From TrEMBL:
PROSITE patterns: PG_MUTASE (PS00175). This is Probable phosphoglycerate mutase GpmB. Keywords: Glycolysis, Isomerase, Membrane, Transmembrane, Transmembrane helix. The active site is at residues 9, 82. Substrate binds at residues 8-15, 21-22, 58, 60, 82-85, 104-105, 151-152. It comes from Pseudocitrobacter cyperus. It catalyses: (2R)-2-phosphoglycerate = (2R)-3-phosphoglycerate.
Length: 215
């Protein structure tokens, strides 16, 4: 059985300011750096063999801090990036116009091929996230990878493994530096293939960032 750990990056400046990041970037806050260290403390004894991260700055920084604790190299995979949110990136979520909010809602409501102008559809996000996950099956036997990615991207991955539509990610709270685990297995009892062991665990964080008002 292959166990894959999934970690959302630490809190960033724009997360705290409620600004849309997507494939734009902002640095980790001090709290975000502390959260990443707490992930490192939690996973250092789990035998992680590979840390594979989205190539955006906030995930790379989180991955480096975790890698220090685990003694692994960091491998970048752009397929683990956040959903491309096109022209709405860098905007404050509370200041969208009615038309902009409608673009955002097309994603939230699962409109087929819904996307923000110049952005990506949930299907495109799902396809590349599953591509990155399938690559883990090609690692040497006994590997235990940890993937560092983003809120919508990881929510989409977990939702679709469960057989839900990609936009069901909106019903899954994956806080900064939460840990999820998925396993690839052959089983007569559970479905064969990917199964979800746990999602959104924050028990290792002394002060989880961003409450339900923010995410
Ligand atoms: O892009 C963003 O603003 C958020 C959305 O959840 O993603 P993340 O902070 O996980 O990169």
């Amino acid at each position: 059985m292959l166990q894959v750990y999934l970690v959302r990056h630490g809190e960033t400046q724009w997360n705290a300011e409620r600004r849309i990041q997507g494939q734009s970037d902002s640095p980790l806050t001090q709290k975000g750096e502390d959260q990443a260290k707490q992930v490192g403390d939690r996973v250092r004894s789990l035998g992680i063999t590979h840390i594979i991260t989205s190539d955006l700055g906030r995930t790379r920084r989180t991955a480096e801090i975790i890698a220090d604790a685990c003694g692994c190299e960091v491998i970048a995979d752009p397929r683990l990036r956040e959903l491309n949110m096109g022209v709405l990136e860098q905007r404050h979520i509370d200041t969208l116009t009615a038309e902009e909010e409608m673009w955002r809602r097309q994603l939230v409501n699962g409109t087929p091929d819904g996307r923000i102008p110049e952005g990506e559809s949930m299907q495109e996000l799902s396809d590349r996230m599953h591509g990155a996950l399938q690559s883990c099956l090609e690692l040497p036997p006994g590997s235990r990878p940890l993937l560092v990615s983003h809120g919508i991207a990881l929510g989409c991955l977990v939702s679709t493994i469960l057989g839900l539509p990609a936009y069901a990610e909106r019903r899954l709270r994956l806080r900064n530096c939460s840990i999820s685990r998925i396993d690839h297995q052959q089983s007569a009892w559970l479905a064969s293939g990917w199964v979800v062991e746990t999602a959104g665990d924050v028990s290792h964080l002394d002060a989880p960032a961003l409450d339900e008002l923010q995410r």
